[in-house]
Amino acid sequence: MAKDEFFKNREGNGEFRFNREVAEVFDDMLSRSVPCYSQVRELTSQVLGCYLKKGDRVYDLGCSTGTTLIELAATHKDLDLNLIGIDNSAAMIEKAALKAEMYSGKDNITFIEGDITETPLDQAGAVILNYTLQFLKPQNRTSFLNKIFQSLRPGGILILSEKTVSNSKETNHNFTELYHEFKRKQGYSDIEISRKKEALENVLIPLTIDENKTILSEAGFKGFETFFQWFNFVSILAVK
Ligand SMILES: C[S@@+](CC[C@H](N)C(=O)[O-])C[C@H]1O[C@@H](n2cnc3c(N)ncnc32)[C@H](O)[C@@H]1O
Fold first, then answer.
1. Ligand 1 centroid – CA 166 distance (Å)
2. Which of 4, 22, 52, 104 could bridge 28 with an S-S bond, Cβ 3.0-4.6 Å?
3. Which tens digit of pLDDT belongs to each residue from 61-96?
4. Range among 8-12, 95-99, 126-130 with highest mean pLDDT value
5. CATH of 33-165+203-239, one of 3.40.630.10, 3.40.640.10, 3.40.50.150, 3.40.50.1460
6. Which atom of ligand 1 is nearest to the CA of 18?
7. Closest ligand 1 atom, CA of 129?
8. Is the CB of 131 under 6 A from ligand 1?
9. Cα separation, 60 vs 129, whole angstroms
10. CA-CA distance, 22 to 15, in Å (whole number)?
11. 134 Cβ below 6 A of ligand 1
12. For the whole model, what pTM was predicted?
Protein backbone atom coordinates (compact mmCIF):
# COMPACT_ATOMS: atom_id res chain seq x y z
CA MET A 1 0.00 0.00 0.00
CA ALA A 2 1.52 3.35 -1.07
CA LYS A 3 2.11 5.72 1.87
CA ASP A 4 0.05 8.90 2.02
CA GLU A 5 2.48 11.82 1.81
CA PHE A 6 0.10 13.91 -0.31
CA PHE A 7 0.30 17.02 1.90
CA LYS A 8 3.90 16.53 3.01
CA ASN A 9 5.69 18.50 0.34
CA ARG A 10 3.08 20.82 -1.06
CA GLU A 11 1.60 24.14 -0.11
CA GLY A 12 -1.91 23.85 1.24
CA ASN A 13 -3.42 25.78 -1.66
CA GLY A 14 -6.23 24.42 -3.77
CA GLU A 15 -9.34 22.44 -2.93
CA PHE A 16 -9.07 18.77 -2.08
CA ARG A 17 -9.99 16.50 -5.02
CA PHE A 18 -10.26 12.73 -5.37
CA ASN A 19 -7.83 12.72 -8.28
CA ARG A 20 -5.28 10.15 -9.48
CA GLU A 21 -2.60 11.23 -6.99
CA VAL A 22 -5.04 10.84 -4.09
CA ALA A 23 -6.34 7.51 -5.43
CA GLU A 24 -2.75 6.18 -5.43
CA VAL A 25 -2.41 6.65 -1.66
CA PHE A 26 -6.10 6.52 -0.72
CA ASP A 27 -6.15 3.21 1.18
CA ASP A 28 -3.32 4.35 3.45
CA MET A 29 -4.90 7.83 3.74
CA LEU A 30 -8.23 6.44 4.98
CA SER A 31 -6.72 3.89 7.33
CA ARG A 32 -4.72 6.70 8.99
CA SER A 33 -7.34 9.48 8.75
CA VAL A 34 -10.64 7.81 9.63
CA PRO A 35 -10.66 6.59 13.24
CA CYS A 36 -11.58 2.90 13.49
CA TYR A 37 -11.97 2.68 9.70
CA SER A 38 -11.47 -1.10 9.55
CA GLN A 39 -13.84 -1.65 12.51
CA VAL A 40 -16.52 0.45 10.78
CA ARG A 41 -16.20 -1.73 7.66
CA GLU A 42 -16.45 -4.84 9.82
CA LEU A 43 -19.50 -3.50 11.70
CA THR A 44 -21.08 -2.47 8.39
CA SER A 45 -20.66 -6.02 7.14
CA GLN A 46 -22.11 -7.45 10.37
CA VAL A 47 -25.16 -5.17 10.27
CA LEU A 48 -25.73 -6.03 6.61
CA GLY A 49 -25.64 -9.70 7.56
CA CYS A 50 -28.67 -9.15 9.82
CA TYR A 51 -30.84 -7.56 7.11
CA LEU A 52 -29.80 -8.88 3.70
CA LYS A 53 -31.65 -11.59 1.82
CA LYS A 54 -30.17 -14.03 -0.66
CA GLY A 55 -29.64 -12.38 -4.05
CA ASP A 56 -30.03 -8.82 -2.75
CA ARG A 57 -28.45 -5.92 -4.60
CA VAL A 58 -26.11 -3.77 -2.46
CA TYR A 59 -24.85 -0.37 -3.54
CA ASP A 60 -21.75 1.33 -2.14
CA LEU A 61 -22.11 4.99 -3.13
CA GLY A 62 -18.80 6.84 -3.12
CA CYS A 63 -17.09 3.44 -3.07
CA SER A 64 -13.58 4.88 -3.72
CA THR A 65 -11.14 1.97 -4.19
CA GLY A 66 -13.80 -0.65 -3.42
CA THR A 67 -12.42 -1.99 -0.12
CA THR A 68 -15.84 -2.31 1.56
CA LEU A 69 -17.49 -4.24 -1.28
CA ILE A 70 -14.49 -6.51 -1.81
CA GLU A 71 -14.59 -7.46 1.88
CA LEU A 72 -18.38 -7.92 1.74
CA ALA A 73 -18.05 -10.26 -1.22
CA ALA A 74 -15.70 -12.44 0.81
CA THR A 75 -17.70 -12.32 4.06
CA HIS A 76 -21.16 -12.94 2.62
CA LYS A 77 -20.36 -15.41 -0.18
CA ASP A 78 -23.37 -17.53 0.81
CA LEU A 79 -25.83 -14.68 0.12
CA ASP A 80 -25.12 -14.42 -3.62
CA LEU A 81 -25.17 -10.65 -3.46
CA ASN A 82 -25.11 -8.35 -6.45
CA LEU A 83 -22.56 -5.71 -5.37
CA ILE A 84 -22.35 -2.37 -7.17
CA GLY A 85 -19.90 0.42 -6.35
CA ILE A 86 -20.35 3.91 -7.83
CA ASP A 87 -17.85 6.77 -7.68
CA ASN A 88 -17.27 9.78 -9.92
CA SER A 89 -13.49 9.56 -9.66
CA ALA A 90 -12.18 7.58 -12.65
CA ALA A 91 -8.92 6.89 -10.81
CA MET A 92 -10.75 5.41 -7.81
CA ILE A 93 -12.92 3.18 -10.02
CA GLU A 94 -9.87 1.90 -11.91
CA LYS A 95 -8.18 1.01 -8.59
CA ALA A 96 -11.34 -0.66 -7.32
CA ALA A 97 -11.67 -2.82 -10.44
CA LEU A 98 -8.01 -3.83 -10.21
CA LYS A 99 -8.33 -4.72 -6.52
CA ALA A 100 -11.48 -6.76 -7.15
CA GLU A 101 -9.62 -8.72 -9.79
CA MET A 102 -6.76 -9.41 -7.38
CA TYR A 103 -8.66 -10.18 -4.18
CA SER A 104 -12.04 -11.65 -4.97
CA GLY A 105 -14.18 -13.70 -7.25
CA LYS A 106 -15.05 -10.46 -9.04
CA ASP A 107 -18.08 -11.89 -10.84
CA ASN A 108 -20.63 -10.38 -8.48
CA ILE A 109 -18.98 -6.94 -8.11
CA THR A 110 -19.44 -4.13 -10.62
CA PHE A 111 -17.76 -0.74 -10.33
CA ILE A 112 -19.32 2.17 -12.20
CA GLU A 113 -17.87 5.61 -12.79
CA GLY A 114 -20.68 8.09 -12.28
CA ASP A 115 -22.20 10.81 -10.15
CA ILE A 116 -24.15 9.15 -7.33
CA THR A 117 -26.75 11.93 -7.40
CA GLU A 118 -27.52 11.25 -11.07
CA THR A 119 -26.99 7.52 -11.56
CA PRO A 120 -30.35 5.65 -11.37
CA LEU A 121 -30.56 3.07 -8.60
CA ASP A 122 -32.44 -0.23 -9.01
CA GLN A 123 -34.17 -1.91 -6.09
CA ALA A 124 -31.65 -2.77 -3.40
CA GLY A 125 -31.51 -4.57 -0.06
CA ALA A 126 -28.90 -2.14 1.23
CA VAL A 127 -27.07 1.05 0.38
CA ILE A 128 -23.74 1.93 1.97
CA LEU A 129 -22.85 5.62 2.13
CA ASN A 130 -19.67 5.83 4.15
CA TYR A 131 -17.95 9.24 4.50
CA THR A 132 -19.45 10.51 1.22
CA LEU A 133 -22.68 12.42 1.98
CA GLN A 134 -20.47 15.06 3.64
CA PHE A 135 -19.06 15.91 0.17
CA LEU A 136 -22.47 16.71 -1.38
CA LYS A 137 -23.92 20.21 -1.20
CA PRO A 138 -26.01 20.35 2.01
CA GLN A 139 -29.08 21.58 0.10
CA ASN A 140 -28.99 18.46 -2.14
CA ARG A 141 -28.63 15.89 0.65
CA THR A 142 -32.29 15.29 1.56
CA SER A 143 -33.43 14.66 -2.01
CA PHE A 144 -30.43 12.38 -2.56
CA LEU A 145 -31.31 10.41 0.61
CA ASN A 146 -34.90 10.21 -0.63
CA LYS A 147 -33.63 8.70 -3.89
CA ILE A 148 -31.86 6.05 -1.80
CA PHE A 149 -35.00 5.52 0.29
CA GLN A 150 -37.06 4.98 -2.90
CA SER A 151 -34.58 2.41 -4.20
CA LEU A 152 -34.64 0.26 -1.05
CA ARG A 153 -37.04 -2.65 -0.78
CA PRO A 154 -39.24 -2.69 2.35
CA GLY A 155 -36.96 -3.71 5.22
CA GLY A 156 -33.91 -2.58 3.25
CA ILE A 157 -31.24 -0.53 5.01
CA LEU A 158 -28.95 2.42 4.59
CA ILE A 159 -25.61 2.53 6.39
CA LEU A 160 -24.50 6.14 6.75
CA SER A 161 -21.08 7.05 8.17
CA GLU A 162 -20.10 10.69 8.49
CA LYS A 163 -17.74 13.11 10.12
CA THR A 164 -19.97 15.38 12.20
CA VAL A 165 -19.83 18.66 14.11
CA SER A 166 -21.09 19.39 17.58
CA ASN A 167 -23.55 22.13 18.53
CA SER A 168 -21.20 23.18 21.31
CA LYS A 169 -18.17 25.28 20.34
CA GLU A 170 -16.17 23.87 23.24
CA THR A 171 -16.96 20.23 22.41
CA ASN A 172 -16.17 20.90 18.78
CA HIS A 173 -12.79 22.34 19.72
CA ASN A 174 -12.01 19.41 22.02
CA PHE A 175 -13.11 16.74 19.52
CA THR A 176 -11.06 18.41 16.78
CA GLU A 177 -8.02 18.39 19.10
CA LEU A 178 -8.58 14.71 19.87
CA TYR A 179 -8.88 13.98 16.15
CA HIS A 180 -5.62 15.80 15.43
CA GLU A 181 -3.96 13.84 18.22
CA PHE A 182 -5.21 10.65 16.54
CA LYS A 183 -3.67 11.80 13.23
CA ARG A 184 -0.36 12.67 14.88
CA LYS A 185 -0.26 9.16 16.35
CA GLN A 186 -0.81 7.85 12.82
CA GLY A 187 2.38 9.62 11.72
CA TYR A 188 0.99 12.82 10.17
CA SER A 189 2.89 16.02 10.99
CA ASP A 190 1.18 19.23 12.16
CA ILE A 191 1.82 20.83 8.78
CA GLU A 192 0.22 17.89 6.91
CA ILE A 193 -2.77 18.05 9.25
CA SER A 194 -3.28 21.78 8.80
CA ARG A 195 -2.79 21.67 5.00
CA LYS A 196 -5.40 18.94 4.63
CA LYS A 197 -7.81 20.77 6.96
CA GLU A 198 -7.48 23.87 4.79
CA ALA A 199 -7.92 21.93 1.54
CA LEU A 200 -11.12 20.33 2.85
CA GLU A 201 -12.65 23.64 3.93
CA ASN A 202 -15.88 24.13 1.92
CA VAL A 203 -15.41 20.69 0.33
CA LEU A 204 -16.24 18.45 3.30
CA ILE A 205 -19.20 20.08 5.03
CA PRO A 206 -20.19 18.17 8.17
CA LEU A 207 -23.61 18.37 9.84
CA THR A 208 -24.46 17.61 13.45
CA ILE A 209 -25.72 14.12 14.30
CA ASP A 210 -29.19 15.59 14.89
CA GLU A 211 -29.15 17.34 11.50
CA ASN A 212 -28.19 14.07 9.82
CA LYS A 213 -31.05 12.31 11.58
CA THR A 214 -33.45 15.09 10.57
CA ILE A 215 -32.61 14.78 6.88
CA LEU A 216 -32.88 10.97 7.11
CA SER A 217 -36.34 11.44 8.56
CA GLU A 218 -37.28 14.01 5.89
CA ALA A 219 -36.07 11.54 3.25
CA GLY A 220 -38.57 8.95 4.51
CA PHE A 221 -36.61 6.80 6.97
CA LYS A 222 -38.66 6.05 10.06
CA GLY A 223 -36.20 4.13 12.20
CA PHE A 224 -32.53 4.89 12.69
CA GLU A 225 -29.93 4.00 15.24
CA THR A 226 -26.34 5.07 15.83
CA PHE A 227 -24.34 1.84 15.90
CA PHE A 228 -20.85 3.37 16.17
CA GLN A 229 -19.36 6.64 17.35
CA TRP A 230 -15.80 7.87 17.89
CA PHE A 231 -16.03 11.49 19.07
CA ASN A 232 -17.18 13.31 15.90
CA PHE A 233 -17.26 10.27 13.61
CA VAL A 234 -20.55 8.43 13.52
CA SER A 235 -22.20 5.47 11.78
CA ILE A 236 -25.98 5.23 11.57
CA LEU A 237 -28.27 2.40 10.54
CA ALA A 238 -31.49 3.58 8.86
CA VAL A 239 -34.21 1.08 8.04
CA LYS A 240 -36.98 1.41 5.42
C1 LIG B 1 -14.07 9.71 1.66
S2 LIG B 1 -14.35 8.91 0.20
C3 LIG B 1 -15.42 7.54 0.63
C4 LIG B 1 -14.74 6.40 1.26
C5 LIG B 1 -15.39 5.05 0.99
N6 LIG B 1 -16.83 5.09 1.08
C7 LIG B 1 -14.84 4.06 1.99
O8 LIG B 1 -15.49 3.80 3.01
O9 LIG B 1 -13.74 3.58 1.75
C10 LIG B 1 -15.50 9.85 -0.71
C11 LIG B 1 -15.69 9.31 -2.13
O12 LIG B 1 -16.87 9.87 -2.66
C13 LIG B 1 -16.65 10.15 -4.03
N14 LIG B 1 -17.63 11.18 -4.41
C15 LIG B 1 -17.80 12.43 -3.90
N16 LIG B 1 -18.84 13.05 -4.50
C17 LIG B 1 -19.35 12.16 -5.39
C18 LIG B 1 -20.43 12.20 -6.32
N19 LIG B 1 -21.21 13.28 -6.44
N20 LIG B 1 -20.66 11.11 -7.09
C21 LIG B 1 -19.88 10.02 -6.98
N22 LIG B 1 -18.85 9.91 -6.12
C23 LIG B 1 -18.59 10.97 -5.33
C24 LIG B 1 -15.20 10.59 -4.11
O25 LIG B 1 -14.67 10.45 -5.40
C26 LIG B 1 -14.55 9.65 -3.08
O27 LIG B 1 -14.03 8.50 -3.68
1. 23
2. 4
3. 999 999 999 999 999 999 999 999 999 999 999 999
4. 126-130
5. 3.40.50.150
6. 25
7. 6
8. yes
9. 6
10. 12
11. no
12. 0.96
